[in-house]
Amino acid sequence: MAGYIFSLNNMESLNKSILHGIYSTIMNIPTNHIWKQNHEGTFGDYITMTEGDNVYFFHERKIYGIGELININGDCKFLNFPNADSPIIYQFKNLKKSMLLDDSKEDLNKRMLCTFKGAPHFFQNGVDMDEILASNPDRFRMLR
Prior knowledge:
The chain is α+β, with helices and mostly antiparallel strands. The protein contains 4 helices and 6 strands. Strands 1, 2, 3, 4, 5 and 6 form a 6-stranded mixed sheet that branches. The model has no long low-confidence stretch (mean pLDDT 90).
């Protein structure tokens, strides 16, 4: 079982993700329309996600809960729209009907998403990352 840490921009995005059970990384299109190494790494992370993997919600040095990836229609990760893995700039009005996340044109930069449930639940007050790491340092490994 793998674990993924999701770093969130703000508390609003944290609350929205937890409420809907969906997380997506913002991936801006490079000016040369070629994915960079960090983009490829993000796609690689999503592709390797499997049902039962843990996800941790991180904001301003605090963890706000643990989730578990769940399958919906046979998988726990999805392209947000057809060809979302291509570094092409699309028009929101042309894709809105085929997008999974379609609240605004900013969702065009959410190329992949994953689905999760609380395992066991989420916290209103985050736990400091230093306290978590100090709790059992032999059990933590950094991959990237």
